[in-house]
Design brief:
FAD-bd_PCMH_sub2, FAD-bd_PCMH-like_sf, 5 strands, Uridine Diphospho-n-acetylenolpyruvylglucosamine Reductase, domain 2, signal, flavin adenine dinucleotide binding, single chain, two-stranded antiparallel ribbon, binds 2-acetamido-2-deoxy-beta-D-glucopyranose, alpha/beta, 8% strand, globular
């Protein structure tokens, strides 16, 4: 199952990269020298309505800070509970999206059974997140990601079956707590002339 999904993901990204000028270049991710400094993140923080979050995989609370086994009963009891998962910034709807498969086949993951690897790996879970509550929060997060060429993912309350709500070493824009809806009847998306463009027809860019 994991192999099929990763093949699907690989296929998607190779298609998506065809039209990108940066086809041969990946975005900056955590751990690389291009990753923003603490002071860059402080500057981002000053533009946000909420504290920056540091997502952890669902099963991370099964591990103590020393990596040893810790209380896991809550995680095991709720492991397949979608609403429980969606309330947590680092928890994906399906566990496979939290794990990362290296090209050599090694899986980086955080298992609820702490005796499988003895360590909780961040896997495919983004390392930092903006808890977006306002349009300004999202503008700041997107602008920061563009400025630093970061891998940026959006996670809301549902899930993305191509796995785009997760991304190893990424910055996440978490929109789960952004619940207000305002209907603006006059709004027309840029480059879209009328509703016929919205139902699947190709429109001139
Ligand atoms: C999670 O599991 C605990 C028991 O460990 C239970 O008390 C709690 O209600 C569960 N949470 C949800 C959202 O189901
Ligand atoms: C696979 O690659 C990862 C990342 O480079 C590395 O950490 C790991 O040790 C490798 N595993 C094996 C079995 O070579
Ligand atoms: C690993 O831990 C699980 C519970 O988390 C337990 O059921 C299982 O027996 C353990 N396996 C080994 C080999 O220790
Ligand atoms: C985006 O970020 C750049 C670099 O920090 C800044 O100069 C610019 O004013 C920002 N633009 C917006 C619209 O926030
Ligand atoms: C969301 O709507 C409520 C009720 O209309 C309002 O009090 C609140 O300020 C709004 N929040 C944001 C972030 O717009
Ligand atoms: C809507 O846009 C399509 C595509 O550009 C165009 O063919 C059509 O005539 C437009 N309809 C109206 C009512 O403007």
């Amino acid at each position: 199952m994991k192999l099929q999904l990763s093949t699907l993901t690989a296929g998607f990204f190779s298609i998506a990269s065809l039209d990108a000028a940066s086809a041969s270049q990946c975005r900056c991710v955590y751990g690389q020298s291009c990753w923003p400094s603490d002071s860059d993140f402080s500057q981002l923080q000053s533009l946000l309505s909420q504290p920056l979050l540091y997502p952890k995989p669902t099963a991370s609370q099964c591990y103590s800070t020393s990596g040893a086994s810790s209380d896991c009963s809550d995680v095991i009891a709720n492991y397949t509970n979608g609403p429980w998962r969606s309330d947590m910034v680092g928890s994906m709807e399906a566990p496979n999206w939290e794990s990362y498969i290296f090209q050599n086949g090694t899986i980086a993951a955080c298992y609820p059974e702490t005796n499988i690897t003895g360590a909780c790996d961040q896997g495919n879970v983004p390392v930092i997140a903006v808890d977006a509550r306002t349009p300004a929060d999202i503008q700041a997060a997107v602008n920061f990601s563009v400025t630093h060429d970061l891998r940026m993912v959006v996670k809301n309350t549902g899930h993305d079956f191509i796995g785009r709500s997760a991304g190893r070493g990424a910055l996440m824009v978490w929109t789960h707590n952004m619940k207000n809806i305002t209907h603006d009847a006059a709004f027309v998306p840029e480059h879209q002339e009328n509703d016929s463009c919205l139902i699947g027809k190709l429109c001139a860019a």
